[in-house]
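Marked as duplicate of an earlier ticket. Keeping the data here for the record.
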Amino acid sequence: MNFNATFLGQTIAFIFFVWFCMKFIWPLLLGMLEAREKRIADGLAAGERGEKKLEEAEQYLLDLVHEGKQKASEIITQAQKRGDEIIDEAKETARTEGKRILEGARGEIEQEKETARQDLRQQVAQLALLGAEQILMREVDRNAHNEVLNKISADL
């Protein structure tokens, strides 16, 4: 065996193998590596987009929460205002109703006083007539007059 012929055969086989790998296997491997690189790059880009969307969603959520708190605060303020207005209206209505009831009661008291006065006048007039009648029926005597007047005074 000759070293040169073997070496030359191995060299030709190696060159053929390298040429075959470069022609058929290397482009296939490069294509797979490029596809994988593209998928990784797309995944990273999608991750960045996802993070950006997450940040936007968090900011939107914070804005919604802030807006909701403001609206709730406004509603509470309006409710307190309306509650105060209702209380004021109720107080005013109560005052008006109280005045009306008081005036009605005063009018009723005056009417009852006037009725009592009229009744009293009628009773006094009847007693005066009874007294005068009794005085006239009896003799015209001073002692008898005093006795009748004392009796009338006792009845009053």
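See parent ticket for discussion. Residues 3-155 form one domain.
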